[in-house]
Amino acid sequence: MGLGRFGGAVADSLVNLGHEVLGIDSNAHIVQDWSDRLTHVVEADATDTEAMRQLGVQDFSRAVVGIGTHLEASVLTVLTLAEIGVPEIWAKAISVKHGKILSSVGARHVIFPESEMGERVAHLITGRMLDYIEFDDGFAIAKVRSPQEAIGRTLADTSLRTKWGVTVVGIKLPGEDFTYARPETVVPPGCILIVAGDTSKVERFAAET
User: Which of 3, 65, 128, 177 is most buried, by CB atoms within 10 Å?
Assistant: First the structure.
């Protein structure tokens, strides 16, 4: 529901992953733009309970509400989906209060794309990380360039876990497949390490190595 930048990106990615997707938007021009890209695209008011029933939305196992700027439409759409029995609702929120309201009316998963992306970019700018994902429980995974001290040595010899408190999950060389890390794995020059651990320790490792 809602085929703007966020909703459209989710829908497009789901199709690329092999899923059937029903896209719903109240804007006829947007519906026309997506008509040949999704499995089904319909111009409809997602807050209209009867219209959603007629479209069979209640038969879908998951729904994504990509409406963000129109708060009333966002909340009413989630409420409508919950009332007709959609079991799993994902919804975009633009503020903490918006997110709390979405959760209270039936959204099982609330997404803050602007906030989450802003935090991720901040980590990439200020550290040596090439990519970064933080989870809710204080756990993070990052891609970093290997520290010079580890080059040519096995992971067991580098003692990165003892020194930094992070676990090397894998190693990647340009143009080669990802390799799962083992204690006897030798760190080659020019490689990227995928490390995991407590958020603060991953950040420290990326900043100081």
Answer: 65
The 10s digit of each residue's pLDDT in 56-78 is: 999 999 999 999 778 999 999 99
Which residue, among 73, 74, 81, has the nearest Cα to 106 in the 3D structure?
A: 81
Distance CA 189, CA 29 (A): 52
pTM value is 0.66
State how far the Cα of 95 lies from the Cα of 76, in Å rounded to an integer.
Answer: 16
Whole-angstrom distance, CA of residue 151 vs CA of residue 27: 55
Q: What is the DSSP string of 134-157?
A: E-TTSEEEEEEEPPGGGTTSBHHH
Separation between Cα atoms, residue 60 and residue 39, nearest integer Å: 14
Amino acid type, 101: I
Q: Are 138 and 197 in contact (CB under 8 A)?
A: no
Q: Which token pair is 119?
A: 């935090």
